[in-house]
Amino acid sequence: MPPKRAPVLLNFDLNNDLHLTFVRSMANIYRDVYQIHHKRINNDFVRDYINSELSSLNNYSINKNMTDKSPVEMEPLDPQDLHIIEFEKDCDVNNHIDFIYAFKGIAGRIIPAIATTTSVISGLAIIELIKLALKVKNIKYRKFLFKSCAAYILEFSDLIEAQKLSYIVDNKKYKYTMWNRVEYKDNILKNIIKAVDIQFKIKVSMVTCDNKLLYWDQDPAYDCNLDKMLSDLINKVEGRKYVVIDCITQDEISLPNVVVIV
Hints:
With 262 residues, the protein is of the alpha+beta class.
């Protein structure tokens, strides 16, 4: 492994494109996080702006004894205005990869790390695609792999078969695993509970989703949720296609995952 470098203090260089890229990408990311209404900036804008600010500071330093006016201070940004943005490596305009490239280019060797990791992931993904193309179903040809590029570790282990559970409907036993699920389309909560009751011949007493209690038959305060669409009761997450709800009975009967397409 190459020797690790101790951190050193760097002087900002307006003629270094890597330094300008770091400032530009960080500024654009802040723009998106704080939802600032300003067009995205480029390296030339950064260079011109910094030169302008340095010139203003020099003029202020010269004239500070000739006036009582202080430099204009911007109002601090409110943390409540923060907007969560998801990392996206395949978008060329969001500056995410530019920031990583500039940061790692200044702090360490990122290109070999990206190349090594990408090649390993790509190779393993191709192996799995070949298995799918050949319709390999024998579990002995499937292994769990742990790979550490930093520590030069490559370990394989056998897969563990999923635990088999069961439930009984009309004196008939049905087996399932954690990978099985029952799907319903988005509907009012009352209809979803009724559908589960009919399919599994049970009485649902409680419904939760993402640690949020949606219904409990022992508390009338939750009755108002029965006539609401499930999609209106859950926490909104952009890009979310479905949610898993927990339907609990008084007898705590084990059921497959109940999934609602939202």
